[in-house]
Amino acid sequence: MKNLKYYVQAGVGLLLAFVIMIYRGLFSKPALSDKVMAIGDGFTVVAVLYLGFGAIMWVSTTGFFDIFGYAAKKAAHAIIPGMIQDDVGRYYEYKVEKEAKRKGFLENFTLKLGVIFLILSILFLFVWYQVA
Q1: What pLDDT sits at residue 26?
Q2: CA dihedral 57, 58, 63, 64 (to 10 degrees)
Q3: Measuring CA to CA, which residue among 47, 61, 54 is closest to residue 114?
Q4: Is the predicted pLDDT of residue 128 greater than 80, yes or no?
Q5: CA-to-CA distance for 124 and 131, rounded, in angstroms?
Q6: Cβ–Cβ under 8 Å, residues 58 and 109
Q7: Using alpha carbons only, what angle is made at residue 7 by residues 46 and 111, rounded to the nearest 5 degrees?
Q8: Which pick of 1, 17, 32, 128 has the fewest CB atoms within 10 Å?
Q9: Candidate from 10-24, 25-39, 81-95 with smallest mean pLDDT
Q10: 31 and 49 in contact (C-beta within 8 Å)?
Q11: What does the pLDDT average to over 61-73?
Q12: 5 pLDDT band (50/70/90 cuts)?
C-alpha cells in the first residue's frame, strides 16, 4: 500500500503514452518507421509533462510561489472580510510561517519517472533513425 502512489503515477504515465501512441497512428499506419515514431512521440509527451510537473513541484518547495499564496489570502480577506477570519499579517510573518511548515523536496519520483520516459523516447528516436 505504501508504493501504491508510485504505481498509480507510472500507470497513468503509461496509459497517457499509449493514448498518444494510438492518436499518432500506432495501429493505423503500416510502415514500421511510423509506428516507432508514434511510440517515441508518446513517451516524449509524457516525459515533458512529468519533467515539467516535477520541476514545478521542486520549485514550490523552495518558497518561490509564497508571494502568490500571500496575495490570494490578502485578496480573499479584502473581498470577503467576514468569511476569512484570520488575517495573515505582513508578508515576512507569512513567509516565516510557511517556511516552518515546509518540508524538503522528498517526493522526486515525478522527476525520476520523467527522466525514465525521456530515456525511452530517446531510445525510440535512435531506433527510428535506424529504421527510417
Answers
A1: 92
A2: -80
A3: 47
A4: yes
A5: 10
A6: no
A7: 45
A8: 1
A9: 81-95
A10: no
A11: 86
A12: confident
Separation between Cα atoms, residue 114 and residue 132, nearest integer Å:
26
pLDDT of residue 20: 96
Long-range contact set of residues 102-106: C-beta below 8 Å, sequence gap at least 24: 102/61, 102/63, 103/61, 104/61, 105/57, 105/58, 105/61
Report pTM: 0.79
